């Protein structure tokens, strides 16, 4: 099945009009020694066989009844209308809205997304999305370099290990130095040579940092250094003080409204203070007016920052972003609305903190967080392998073994509890934890 | 009102939606969970809108958007082919959609990643692929960082990358992100890379590699391709293939056999995943054997015990994003390749070339075709029409006829560039409609140019003031 509509007769007519005899004649420019005989791939499949093949493959992945795993990818309830809207074919079969007059639907949606995220975060300006939080953080670090012309970035321990590695890769590309330090060393390390401080809150281990204090420290000790905050699960903003209230210069986060899908696609939120507008990477949509009329409409704007005009002087090479997921995030946010978002955040806080308290009362378990936490926290376990195995036996996706990222932390787990974990799930998990301690 | 209502203006005073599970445990005093100083103390400035109102709002917006499903979408360099619906179904199978990237019971996902990588190796003539990059541009960054790593590990200092002046903006931008400076080479009168200039640049000794799109961005296949890669290799450089234009040659020739060492693909173009209104895409990167160790992590490899996931083994460029890339997009591309099979892939390529040449030959008596010979899947027009009617005017006149415009003002080497790529999934009726529209617009340019300069007229909204948008940026509500 190749989705090519022509019959042989049509092909013949077209070839005649072109003035060649057969399809192979269209490839005169390719040297003969480079032409291949045939691909070593199977014959094409019918749609029904495709579905069977892919269904069988998908069933080799296990779907659990419930999950206590987060660590950068979260199970939240996603209203049905989200998928219905991103399945509108004029959204998902369009390209980037270059021709504004026939793309107002996408353009207005992006403008609404930029607005909705800016309202949620209380940051001034949000772009039309980055690939994911990790690469958005890396681009934010680069942005700090472009703004300050300084070539050193400080990363505060507690940033998701995969984000740290991504930042290191990008920074190595531009020869920007990176150093990872504990938060309490920030005072000593802050100098005028630092382009930006990257901090995650809630961090990988679940801790909620007092970002306003970090901002104060940076402002008091440096003139130019940027404060960049990352966040893995922005549903917490329903109850948590937003970055815009904490003097954050650049805020990045993973999107909302998507299923995990083995880690992607999701999107990277990137929001900045207004003064950095012309230094931010990625697409931006702006409101404007007709040239020959009075109607208002939307266009891609401030493109002078971008690669197709600025080429090697561009801030970034990003071109395609995660547009359709941006619509999913937007629809998720407006579906829940201010009331629903508060509700979801509250439930995540309550349920995770309930489990945290309950576990700390089971002998053998020790909660390691000393700061407040949202829907994740870390626990030292008496018998980690038994706990993981028992979870799986009961069809529960177990928490993350911290040793996955930190090989020496052998008996610690990172637990995630969201609104998707019912009281029964929670009680069962606590029961398993109790049994695993014996 | 001159502006369409935003969703924020459709709020109600009471919440009607009920999506979130019932709170079924006893609450703890919130102030003991989170100190007041860290709490959000103002309401989120988002409305509560009932479900039906939201659905209507976005369905109406979708209807104001042109997609491949609306008609021909001949956007050069973007390969806007039909997006099979089965791809949407397979990516949403719960065994793919609902699995966590860190869960251990992931055999199906790992197998899919491995199999797709193998298929792409076969199609491109490479030895290994990473599927992690999220789009073409991130694939480029991955590839150019691999070049950086290769020379770093060998202890050889080379800090320049050659790009032709016809290259996409991402190519020079990417090179800069990896710390390289650019040598730009002017394309010759055939749109091809002049060998003498290439050799001259390579002789400098500081060139790490060449980035090339082939067929190139003017739509022709560079006939000297094997000599080009030979010259670059002779001076110790690596050859990078921008795979945005793979569509016309898949199943016909392999970039790996042309001498390319690294390649990125755009699955949202060639493999129809679709484009999603600007993303998500996927930009897998393929390399030859000698470069496998530098691929980003994590990777899936095959060893005696079967498939295994490997992390950074020392020489890798590191991680370029979290987890496994845009996995959902990979599922769609895999489905598409299985659907086409070996013959379908070749057939798709051939018909994309057929369609593009058909349009070219039917309009060339009127339009200036700067590189007028058998082209590949796309061709370039210099839309410098009579009476000062330009590329943008032609684009808007096409919109007025219910047709999406081709890519305009890219590549930069032709002033009134219009890059036309119909793809293989358009039928002759649609191609003829496009041809007819182009000829009609030409005639109109002769007779009534002023009319064209102010279009479009039949669209949702008239031509918009891009200068105003940039001068007084209004980026949110
Ligand atoms: C030749 C070429 N290279 C690279 C890219 C960048 O690809 P992406 O938008 O997937 O990042 C494009 C996209 O239009 C392209 O046409």
Explain this structure to me?
The complex is a heterodimer of chains A (438) and B (477). Chain A has 438 residues and is α/β, with parallel strands linked by helices. The termini of chain A are far apart. In chain A, α7 links the parallel β3 and β4 (177-181). Chain A has 13 helices and 15 strands. Chain A folds into two domains: 66-75 and 337-437, Alpha-Beta Complex (Aspartate Aminotransferase, domain 1); 80-333, Type I PLP-dependent aspartate aminotransferase-like (Major domain) (Aspartate Aminotransferase, domain 2). Chain B is α/β, with parallel strands linked by helices and 477 residues long. Chain B folds into three domains: 7-58, no CATH class; 85-339, Aspartate Aminotransferase, domain 2 (3-Layer(aba) Sandwich); 342-467, Aspartate Aminotransferase, domain 1 (Alpha-Beta Complex), CATH 3.90.1150.10. A seven-stranded mixed β-sheet of chain B has the order 1-7-6-5-4-2-3, sandwiched between helices. In chain B, strands 10-12-11 form a three-stranded antiparallel β-sheet, covered by helices on one side. In chain B, a hairpin with a 2-residue loop joins β8 and β9 (306-310). In chain B, α3 (85-91) packs antiparallel against α10. Classes of the chains: A alpha/beta (438), B alpha/beta (477). Chains A and B meet through α1, α2, α3, α4 and α5 of A and α2, α3, α4, α5 and α6 of B. The complex binds pyridoxal-5'-phosphate. Pyridoxal-5'-phosphate binds next to α6 of chain B.
């Amino acid at each position: 099945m190749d989705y090519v509509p022509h019959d042989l007769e049509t092909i013949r007519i077209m070839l005649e009009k072109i003035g060649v005899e057969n399809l192979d004649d269209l490839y005169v420019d390719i040297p003969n020694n480079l032409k291949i005989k045939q691909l070593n791939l199977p014959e094409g499949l019918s749609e029904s066989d495709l579905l069977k093949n892919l269904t069988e493959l998908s069933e080799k992945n296990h779907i659990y009844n419930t999950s206590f795993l987060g660590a950068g990818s979260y199970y939240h309830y996603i209203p049905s209308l989200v998928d219905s809207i991103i399945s509108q074919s004029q959204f998902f079969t369009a390209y980037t809205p270059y021709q504004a007059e026939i793309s107002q639907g996408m353009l207005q949606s992006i403008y609404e997304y930029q607005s909705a995220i800016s309202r949620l975060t209380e940051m001034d300006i949000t772009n039309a999305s980055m690939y994911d939080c990790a690469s958005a953080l890396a681009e934010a670090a680069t942005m700090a370099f472009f703004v300050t012309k300084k070539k050193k970035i400080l990363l505060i321990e507690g940033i998701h290990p995969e984000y740290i590695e991504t930042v290191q890769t990008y920074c190595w590309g531009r020869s920007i130095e990176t150093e990872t330090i504990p938060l309490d060393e920030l005072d000593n390390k802050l100098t005028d040579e630092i382009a930006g401080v990257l901090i995650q809150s809630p961090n990988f281990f679940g801790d909620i940092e007092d970002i306003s204090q970090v901002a104060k420290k940076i402002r008091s000790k440096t003139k130019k250094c940027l404060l960049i905050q990352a966040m893995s699960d922005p549903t917490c903003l329903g109850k948590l003080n937003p970055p815009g209230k904490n003097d954050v210069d650049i805020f990045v986060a993973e999107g909302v409204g998507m299923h995990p899908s083995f880690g992607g696609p999701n999107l990277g939120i990137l929001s900045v203070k207004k003064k950095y507008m012309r230094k931010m990477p990625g697409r931006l949509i702006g409101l404007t007016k007709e040239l020959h009329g009075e109607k208002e409409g939307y266009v891609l704007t401030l493109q002078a920052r971008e690669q197709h005009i600025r080429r090697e002087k561009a801030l970034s090479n990003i071109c395609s972003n995660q547009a359709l997921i941006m619509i999913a995030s937007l629809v998720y946010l407006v579906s829940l609305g201010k009331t629903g978002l508060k509700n979801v955040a509250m439930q995540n806080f309550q349920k995770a903190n309930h489990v945290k308290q309950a576990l700390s009362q089971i002998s053998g378990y020790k909660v390691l967080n000393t700061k407040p936490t949202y829907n994740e926290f870390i626990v030292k376990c008496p018998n980690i392998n038994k706990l993981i195995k028992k979870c799986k036996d009961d069809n529960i996706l177990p928490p993350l073994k911290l040793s996955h990222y930190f090989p020496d932390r052998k008996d610690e787990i990172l637990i995630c509890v969201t609104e998707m974990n019912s009281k029964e799930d929670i009680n069962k998990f606590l029961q398993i934890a109790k049994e695993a301690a014996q | 009102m001159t502006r369409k209502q935003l969703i924020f203006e459709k709020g109600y005073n009471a919440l009607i939606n009920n999506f979130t599970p019932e709170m079924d445990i006893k609450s703890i005093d919130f102030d003991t969970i989170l100190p007041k100083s860290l709490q959000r103390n103002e309401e989120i400035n988002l409305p509560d809108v009932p479900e039906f109102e939201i659905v209507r709002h976005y369905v109406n917006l979708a209807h104001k958007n042109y997609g491949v499903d609306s008609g021909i979408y001949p956007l050069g360099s973007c390969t806007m082919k039909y997006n099979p619906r089965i791809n949407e179904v397979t990516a949403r199978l719960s065994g793919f959609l609902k699995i966590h990237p860190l869960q251990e019971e992931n055999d199906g996902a790992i197998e899919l990643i491995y199999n797709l990588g193998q298929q792409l190796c076969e199609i491109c003539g490479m030895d290994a692929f990473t599927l992690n990059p999220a789009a073409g541009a991130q694939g480029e960054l991955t590839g150019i960082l691999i070049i950086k790593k290769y020379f770093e590990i060998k202890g050889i200092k080379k800090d320049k990358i050659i790009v032709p002046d016809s290259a996409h903006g991402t190519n020079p931008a990417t090179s800069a992100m990896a710390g390289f400076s650019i040598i730009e080479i002017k394309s010759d009168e055939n749109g091809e890379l002049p060998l003498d200039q290439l050799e001259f640049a390579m002789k400098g000794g500081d060139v790490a590699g060449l980035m090339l799109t082939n067929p190139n961005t003017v739509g022709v296949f560079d006939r000297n391709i094997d000599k080009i890669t030979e010259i670059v290799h002779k001076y110790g450089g690596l050859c990078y293939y921008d795979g945005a234009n793979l569509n016309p040659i898949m199943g016909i020739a392999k970039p790996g056999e042309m001498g390319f060492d690294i390649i990125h693909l755009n699955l949202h173009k060639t493999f129809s995943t679709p484009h999603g209104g600007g993303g998500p895409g996927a930009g897998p990167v393929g390399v030859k054997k000698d470069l496998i160790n530098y691929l980003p992590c994590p990777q899936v490899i095959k060893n005696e015990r079967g498939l295994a996931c490997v992390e950074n083994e020392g020489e890798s460029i590191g991680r370029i994003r979290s987890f496994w890339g845009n996995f959902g997009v990979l599922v769609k591309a895999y489905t598409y390749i299985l659907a086409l099979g070996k013959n379908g892939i070749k057939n798709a390529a051939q018909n994309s070339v057929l369609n593009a040449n058909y349009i070219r030959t039917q309009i060339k008596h009127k339009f200036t075709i700067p590189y007028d010979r058998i082209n590949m899947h796309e061709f370039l027009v210099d839309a410098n029409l009579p009476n000062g009617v330009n590329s943008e005017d032609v684009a808007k006149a096409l919109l007025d006829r219910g047709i999406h415009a081709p890519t305009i003002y890219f590549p930069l080497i032709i002033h009134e560039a219009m890059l036309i790529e119909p793809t293989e999934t358009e039928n002759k009726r649609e191609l003829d409609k496009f041809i007819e529209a182009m000829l009609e617009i030409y005639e109109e340019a002769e007779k009534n140019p002023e009319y064209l300069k102010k279009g479009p007229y039949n669209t949702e909204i008239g031509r918009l003031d891009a200068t105003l948008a940039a001068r007084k940026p209004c980026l949110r509500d």
